[in-house]
Amino acid sequence: MNRELPTSLLMLIAGRHAQQRIFDAVQAGGFTDVTLAQGRLMAGMDPEGTRLSVLADRAQVAKQTATALVDRLEKGGYVERVPDPADGRARLVRMTARARAAIPVARDEEQRIEAEWAAYLGPRRMRQLREALTALREVTDPYVERRA
């Protein structure tokens, strides 16, 4: 029996496909010592750095798992732990130049994916998809700034 898949699962399938393609492109770009789990964690980093607990939450992993991932990323030269300027007792995890060098590779693949999806869906449907997903962020993303 074929059932109609829920929208949330359809979004997960498309997102997972895009995530894997971006990861594969980063690997092909020479960053072969980064795992998919580490990549997911880095994708949740803010430019100025992010607290470990926030990274764990964004990556939907236990804090202990995030700590282990950050430890390996730090050993690989991808991240560093720095003092949090807002709280001297806290630390931020921040990308190093090595990690930032992988960003253009990931962004290029993101653009290829967007172009392929736009070619498949057509400009109107792609615009509608982006508008709908952007609107859903307001009620699904705990880190998005809410409108007043």
How are the elements arranged and paired?
Blueprint: H1 7-28, H2 36-43, H3 52-59, H4 63-75, E1 79-84, E2 87-95, H5 97-121, H6 123-140
Antiparallel strand pairs: 1-2
Structural write-up:
The protein has 148 residues and is mainly α. It has one domain (9-140): Arc Repressor Mutant, subunit A (Orthogonal Bundle). It is 64% helix and 10% strand. It has helices spanning 7-28, 36-43, 52-59, 63-75, 97-121, 123-140; strands at residues 79-84, 87-95. A two-stranded antiparallel ribbon has the order 1-2. A hairpin with a 2-residue loop joins strand 1 (79-84) and strand 2 (87-95). Helix 2 packs across helix 3.
Are there runs of 5+ residues with pLDDT below 50, and where? none
| End-to-end Cα distance | 46 Å
Note the beta-strand portion.
Answer: 5-15%
User: Could you say how many structural domains there are in total?
Assistant: 1
- Order of strands side by side in the largest beta sheet? 1-2
At the third CATH level, what is the topology name?
A: Arc Repressor Mutant, subunit A
CATH architecture title = Orthogonal Bundle
* Overall body shape: globular
Which structural category do the helix and sheet elements fall into? Answer: mainly alpha
How much helix, percentage-wise, in residues? 55-70%
Average the pLDDT over all residues and give the rounded result. Answer: 93
Strand and helix order = HHHHEEHH
Question: How many strand elements?
Answer: 2
Number of helices: 6
Mind telling me the C-alpha Rg?
Answer: 17 Å
Give the CATH H-level superfamily.
Winged helix-like DNA-binding domain superfamily/Winged helix DNA-binding domain
- Largest sheet: number of strands, sense, barrel closure: 2 strands, antiparallel
